[in-house]
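Known limitations

Files may contain more than one protein. Parsers should not assume a single record per file. Below, a two-record file is shown to illustrate correct handling: read the sequence, read the token line, then continue until end of file.
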Amino acid sequence: MDRRKALKNMGLAMGYTVATPTLISIIQSCKSEPAIVWTPDFFTADEGSAVTKLVDIILPKTDTPSASEVNVHLFIDKFANEVMEKEQQDFVKMSMSKFMDKVLADSGKEHIKDITLEDLEPVLAASLKVSKDDKVTNMKMINTYNKAVAAGQEANLDDTVSRFAFADNLRGLTIWGYKTSEYVGEEVLAYLPVPGEYIGCADTQELTGGKAWSL
């Protein structure tokens, strides 16, 4: 199945569906800001460069634009900076640090700015390649870690689980940001800027040709 068809049929399953004023403003601010002059607010410049590469590994250019071409990396940076709580921000920084440490160690490089797509891809793939049972175990460990941090207790999280947490969170945010981008909202999903008549007893196939509705 090509990505365009997959996006058309994707429901709102990511769990990030509340269109708060802050979220709406973030989405709107990411429409036209040129990525070439992007200065991250939450990530460092080198981390921002790595995130840009990572989102394009997750959603590369096919019959639809790549994630960075619709500014998903800007969206993630703004969301982390403006919406996440301090504890969430700290967790992202910690888990990203563990992820990048692995990339640097495996690539033999010293600086994040020198990391390439080829360096990032195997670590991302390995971090996401977990069984259902392992994912459940990882989530329990992450939850225990976050509860300990919230209680002001000393907490440690296994490096492998930390890398999984970063990769899994980034994948979810990438898909969410991509689906809420202007291009996907208007060109791929069913888009109706001015609501028409209400039809209460019709399925999606009949109303939109099988497309999920754009937010």
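...continuing to the second record:
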Amino acid sequence: MSALPSTVEFSVSTENAHIVVMLLLSHNITFTVISSDQTENTQSPAIAIANEPKTNPTYVSKAPLIPNLKLIESIYLKYINKNIEQSIPNETQIAAEFGISLGTFKNGFRKVYGKPFYQLYLEKRIEHAKMLLLTGYKSAEIAERLGYSQAIKFNKIFQKYVGITPKQFQNNHQGGARR
């Protein structure tokens, strides 16, 4: 039988890095994440996340750990992955719900996902709205599903992020399924 390698290197897109990190954490696997934009002359990683097993007290990370990683991932799953059609949550209330300070929440979220919570939340809502448009929903129906009091508010936000109105988007992608 051959021995397992002590180090394995692999590449993961930035968007999916948090999934790999959570998998490694859940299995108590020691790891280091190195930013792909790191220059060859740099000796320490730009970003490092370590899960130190209790049997190895001498492990030292060369970069700061991301605090409350599991909590930040839980927030992402609850508010962005599962409840994207709910009204936009208040960051202060989210931090209080998870028992962390607002600063810890904001800084941790930016470190893990590369952007502020509210920005990522809106981007995911727009992606969800695009999917609904492609399946034949009308703009007014989507606005209602996403909790906008008026369809025009949804239309303006959609146009701001996508560059065209929901109707134009739908017309440009006529090949989508119809309900």
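Parsers that stop after the first record will miss the second one. For reference, the second record is described as follows. The chain is about 50% helix and 0% strand.
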